[in-house]
Amino acid sequence: MTLRADLPEETLAGVLAKAFGNRSFLIGFVITLLVAAIALLSFVWTPHDVTKLVIADKTQAPSPAHWFGTDHFGRDILSMIMVGARNSIAVALVAVGIGMGIGVPLGAFAAARGGIADEALMRVNDLVFAFPALLSAIMITAIFGPGAVNAIIAIGIFNIPVFARVARAGALAIWPREFILAARAAGKGMTEITVEHILPNIATLLLVQGTIQFALGILAEAGLSYVGLGAQPPMPSWGRMLFDAQTRMVTAPWMAIFPGMAIVITVLGLNLLGDGIADILDPKSRRQR
Amino acid sequence: MTYLLKRLIIAAVTLVLASMVVFAVMEILPGDPARLMLGFNASTDQVELLRNQMGLNAPLVLRYLHWAGGLLSLDFGRSYTYSVPVIDLVRERVVVSLPLALIALALSTAIAIPVGLFSASRQGRAGDTLAMGAAQLGVAVPNFWFALMLIYLFAVWLRLVPAGGFPGWSAGIWPAVKSLLLPAVALALPQAAILARVARSALIEVLNEDYIRTARAKGLPYRAVLWRHALRNAMIPVLTILGLQFAFLLAGTIIIENVFYLPGLGRLVFQAITQRDLIVVESVVMLLVAAVIAVNLLVDFSYAVVDPRLRGRQ
Amino acid sequence: MKLWKTILATAVLSFAAATSAFAARTDLVIGIPLEPPHLDPTAGAAAAIDEVLYANVFEGLTRIGPNGEVLPDLAESWTISDDGKTYTFKLHTGVKFHDGSDFGADDVKFSLDRARADNSVNAQKGLFAQIDKVDVVDPATVKVTLKNPQGSFLYNMGWGDAVMVSPKSADANKEKPIGTGPFKFQNWAKGSSITLVKSDNYWGASVALDKVEFRIVPDAAAAVPALLSGDIQAFPFFDPDSVSQVKDDPRFKVVIGSTEGETILSINNKKPPFDKLQVRQAISYALDRKAIIDGASAGLGVPIGSHMSPANKDYVDLTGLYPHNVDKAKELLKEAGLENGFKATLKLPPPSYARLGGEIIASELRDVGIDLEIVPVEWAQWLDQVFTKKDYDLTIVSHTEPNDIDIYSRKDYYFNYANPAFNAIIDKLNLTSDEAKRKELLGEAQKILADDAVVGFLYELPKVGVWDAKLQGLWENAPIQANDLTKVKWTD
Question: What is the ipTM, given to two decimal places?
Fold first, then answer.
């Protein structure tokens, strides 16, 4: 841990200058911003209506009218990718939110308390990690039925131990530090110290882990949708588009190529962004991936 | 010794807890296996009779103990759909999944280590940037999409390998291995990308150590230093990741096995879930969980071997 | 790119040429969508069992031909007594089971008695219900006495459920089937494939194929590349939706036949607002059958207006009753007091006709103001929730049993439809044997179902077979679920 609470020499301008000098960050930032912008744009405008099926226009090759071609129901692929971005981002973002919202307090609490609480948390972590994630997601959706909400839950559950582990490890490294000892001497309680000193100091760690889990969440959502357990029609989703494409690879390869590229580019952007953030704020950190 | 003992106990406790979770999940899975076996037009009486025969009407705790006891003595029960012992099914499937995981692991190592070495030795230069850019791309590619592209390129277009299916080992080693090549490549690529990144950073770390500088100062050629000293010392994090990846590969092949319709464990468990062959789901999931726990335990043990201080510590 | 491909292809070809001779092929890999639960056709209803074993491994006294005709099989000839109650079968001699034991009259008696016994697990015991007794006259002659004359007896003896088995091996047939056919069982790799090889001691005309592998390919997504890459050379039951991928490829032959599968949008008739006739009629008007057939079954399949196959002699064309008309549908909904539309769920089982058709129907119903939530279900859940518990609004399923219009009269059937007038017709039908009268009654029955718009009648599911153009002798139609390989050969 080289992150410090007190970085007087690091001004915001300095960090920004560093950020935009970092290639990973810059590329990742631009891609992520672009994907987010496209997702937002889809709320107000898409080239074509994605809920309207025009069977007569099915599987048309890319053309000026349909830049990325049409799918097996005559829908515009570009429009579907735009709306699909919403779904991917929403699922991954909420799943990260679940993971952080539950995992971070658990991890921070375990680190602060130690002993039985810590031990119990780690054992539950072991238990969750022992189940292959995709298999468990499939079982969860088998119980509750497929759908975007259940996909979020299935992915979110597996984010909890990840964030708990990161938060705990980060917090454990901070607790023995002098400024914490000073705070304790000043009579501050465990919760107060955690909120005031520990969390701000592990925020970057969590941010980096957050982008990683965000990227993994997008891949996981695509995988679940691909086996038919994610978002349901008429809501377009990238994984489902690939599922629909796979039986039409001969006559309509564009149905597979463009949504696949959308996934690759988005995940790439997020990973670069995460790398960049880690580099800027903590040049020596070894990222575990 | 206390460290190892503690890890062992933890593993055992995790296993028992996992078995309870798996059993509970199967209990709340909607769909009656007896109804499914008998089909559309069976009467309620017939279904009830079969439920009794299958032991589905016994009290919960009794059924759990019966099942868990069976697992301990390697008696996994009989499949509802195939009416053969589950252990036989598992045996048939392991000979597909295990070699697939091993080939994928070998491939990913064979790609990742040289790339890691290459990148580390050219840190910050164009070659490094290019290789790590490729690795970033590899991590971002969904493996099922990659599999789809591979099938159409190598099986449909070039017709070099089968598009899917598994002829069985009785068909000969080469035909069997050939049918595992594409799925192994599809699985190996993202893993190789991850591993290459780990290998690179581990190598860079080692290359900055004092003894490497010393070796260089003594006049050993760079290449020799890289191979003889750096690689060996960088192996520890790499092996850790490899261990975790193996567990992942053994269990995480569900989608890939479906894309290539390979009769492996992942596909077995996926089919069993849709057919509500609960006994197969329970047993295979437990087996996979046990495999993950065992690999984690091995990793823990290897830490102890590497770092003797751990052995005595609590 | 092109040059590169040529070079590679040449390399591959020369490699292939080096490893295989140029003689006509004698091996075949057939793709089947479902894995049989076991391999005994006399102990299970699953069509997948017959698709592998019928006529290939197991034979009966008679057999069904490619066009549904009855042909002699193990019985080379037969005589029927004047009262139509006694059938005397003359058996082929020199017939051996695959385990080397002889086949004779004793085995016929054993097989038939076993199938009709009280504790029999035969899935079609009704086939044998009229048999009074089976007598062995001599090793090559069997006499079967019926309780009543039965016109369909010889046809019944041709079913997969009536094949001949040996007392020595019958109990083990589920795992290791032993029959008298031209192919013998070699191996079953569970979840993967079943392999048959040519039998050396076959009594009849020799078959052209040496080895046949039935490979289980449940997903259409895997079937297409398997066919294109040549791994699998025939899919007798191919997913219609995928036909477009191969129909323009000269390497393959696409054969379209018909099935007995009425594909319908089932409606829960008791659940409001579907208990209102106007609502159900509105749904029927909202459906655009052409778009559904084009989008869900590649344009194959014949529209239907009631529950009867257009190929049936008693079929009445009612497809004009509810033409696609969005305004009319909206008007009917308004009459029903639902001018603002309503929400409902559409539960879809796994087949592509349901999943694809469901998306189209949801879009069409949205146009008239009905907002459907699509809920995909596995067969297990479908049977449980929809079929058994009737917990559904709408679902799509193909009813593949022939002549099954009577399901609408069944109490507690999942449609929740109860119309005394319809039930009276079915009751009358069951007591009527006069063909003309039956036709009239069946016509009335179809009319009532259409008028009541009990369900949304969509189309007759097509039977699509795709195989290598060089392959000859596969059945084009499917009078029964079978893949008879006895006449199949490769040509060049």
Answer: 0.85
